[in-house]
Amino acid sequence: MNPKPIRYSSFLYLLLFALILTGCGSRETLRGVFKKETPYEAYATSLKTAKLDETAIGQDWLAAGQLALQRPIPVTLPFKETGYFPADNPRALGYRLEAKRGEQLVVSLEMKARQTIQVFIDLFEAGTDPATPKRVASADTAATTLTYVVDEDMAHLLRIQPELLRGGTYTITIEAQPTLAFPIPGKSSRHIASIWGDPRDAGARSHEGIDIFAPRGTPVVASADGVVSRVSETPRGGKVIWLSDLNRGHNLYYAHLDQQLVTAGQRVSLGDTLGLVGNTGNAKGTGPHLHFGIYRYGRGATNPYPYVHQSAAPIPAIKVDASHIGNWVRVSSKMANVRMAPSAKAALYTSLPKNTPLQVTGAANNWYRVRLADQTEAYIISSLVEGIAKPIAVKKLTLGRPLLDEAHPEAGQIDSLRAGAAILVVAVNGNFELVRQPDGRLGWVQSAD
């Protein structure tokens, strides 16, 4: 396998940049921006205005953006990956992640490049039709962080793509963070003993909140800025407080309190004490705890857990040899599994025999992201590959042969190898061998002997 390289002359570089500048400066493109086009859409419009969508490289750029959404890599949060965007080969990253209502997705991008580079970040709800995902948030490198509060439980797609003819090293970090402060200071999700949906009253109803256990008299605080809408006592909730979170459009419900320390109509700030933990109402006979619920305006109760849960999982570190990124490696074991995500539990994409070459495009934790023959990108554990500095064989050609730019009989010829020439074989793909020239260049030879 060998991704086909795309080469452009310096003249074409200059021509394309001139066209892009012309397109970006056009009245039509500016009108598109003021029509609330996203940065990605505005850039795509500029390509079409400059007629770059009729060129091979422009078409490749647009196709890469679509492919990233059609073949996203499934990831588990928190997630971190580093890799390389080549300037001469349009590439886009696509990730699929499961998200819960009330979480805040935080996407951070760090770029290292010799020139200023614009990178577009777009977040979509996957929806039911993969061909038409709904864009919900966008940014470019003018803002290196994108944040989005998830509105519904569903998979989301994240696409990251640089502008044409600009390359550099990227590091992308994706996290899910709570949107509300935990209602009992010093406690966390570990102290939740009863969760959303647990049966109540012998199964006649289900639990519409979470129960957080703490000693009687522990302060209960406002999880957000808001207005106290109600302070009352009910048979089920005991001493309760309702707090309107006007910014997010929902009410926060605090129940079973021992004492209420605010009054209706009072404005409170994040972290202000509202009351004290108790076991009033139908919690009598149980240990002191806070029942915490969230009710969305006009939509009823929703699971509070994602709103307040702070994951204890650390952001995974990159544990591979980063010098391989952007270069070739080869399979070092007898057989190696390639998976659709950087996890041993991820779906198997294919298995490859020893000495198969792979081009590394990125790395996550202790996995390499590699490009496959069909241009799909997948992952292989770093312990199953090695560099190609040391040849696996030295052969002498009995006949002259063309040196090809990819492992295909109709590939372009980049040089001619004369009969009797010694070749250094560094990897093997079927009946093609990846060889290194004395000047360090790599190329492919068919059926070398």
TrEMBL record:
Residues covered by the M23ase beta-sheet core domain: 206-299
Gene3D superfamilies referenced in this protein's UniProt entry, alphabetically: Glucose Permease (Domain IIA), SH3 Domains
CDD domains: M23_peptidase
InterPro entries: Cell_wall_metabolism_enzyme, Dup_hybrid_motif, M23ase_b-sheet_dom, SH3-like_bac-type
Source organism superkingdom: Bacteria
Molecular function GO labels: metalloendopeptidase activity
Occurrences of domain SH3b (ranges): 336-385
One matching Pfam family: Peptidase_M23
The protein's name in its UniProt record: SH3 domain-containing protein
Organism: Pontibacter ramchanderi
